[in-house]
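queue> holo job accepted (magnesium ion)
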Amino acid sequence: MNNSQFLSKCTADAIGKAASQLIAGHLVAFPTETVYGLGADASNPEAVRRIYEVKGRPMDHPLIVHISSMDLLDVWAINIPEYAIKLARDFWPGPITLVLKRSSEARDFITGGQDSVAIRVPSNPIALSLLRTFESKGGKGIAAPSANRFGQVSPTSSQDVVSELANYLIEGDLILEGGKCDVGIESTIIDCSNVIPKILRPGAITKEMLEDATEIYACENSLSDIRVSGALEKHYAPRAKVILDHIPQSGQGFIALSKFPTPEGVIRIASPKDVVEFAQILYESLRKADILELKEVVVTQPIGNGLAIGVRDRLKKASMGL
Ligand code: TXA
Ligand code: MG
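queue> job finished
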């Protein structure tokens, strides 16, 4: 089987077809500004079941519902606190997911049986266009986890999706080609089901940005009892062993800001100029380590707050449990 058979260029026609395929119960992988998502109609239990099957993800892990605008929030959530409305107004469309009390539309197969639902309006124009077209055909939201096999590195290009998932897709499923993702790591997730916001997963919308917008101190993830698959110990992990903040030795891969020189014999995988570029190239660099069949890759982590916290969070998980 030709693995590229599912790939589709993003013409208006292709987006229309993709929206129809979603309505018909098929899966469509699509670009977002963070990472590629594997989408299904969030109101269709059979379609959502296939997401779990294709990803190899346990059934009780909840999914993010993507919508085209905050006007549709009420379809999926109830009792939305004032500060969550503020976050939606300030940061949507964009790389932030809000966890809210669920409405009756958010059924157990989306929420993993929890009383809350995760919702996001992505800013990538292809994602937004797909959502609008899907909604114009009667759809209410697209459930989409990152388009990788469970526990693997998230995809930041359509080719990554092909190599992760093409063997598990069936006729009628599609992968929309939309170039490389701008942000490169998954959205910030904020639990808005309490009186103050709680950061469950750090990302491009930083703690400082949240606090400025809401004028409330945000608390941080304490590995709560909420099931967040990204909070599992080993995640975002390549086959190569990821070693953090060591001096790289000959034969090892090396990912570090460009200001760090490459010692002799070390295989330089990436030299991002700043933390924004670090996030962009992080997953493709970890994939590259595997393509090069490296046993070990040393990463010099970016210091500081903001996006660097999200990058270190993913690196910590990539380096654990091996
Ligand atoms: O950037 C992103 O968020 C990407 C793109 C495709 O939108 N999506 C993504 O989905 O990263 P996924 O499934 O790989 O990660 C979503 C995380 C999971 O860790 C899941 O457990 C958590 O969101 N989540 C979903 N619903 C939740 C809920 N009701 N309460 C707490 N966490 C939830
Ligand atoms: Mg994921």
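queue> The pocket of magnesium ion (ligand 2) is lined by residues 145-146, 154, 230 (CB under 6 Å).
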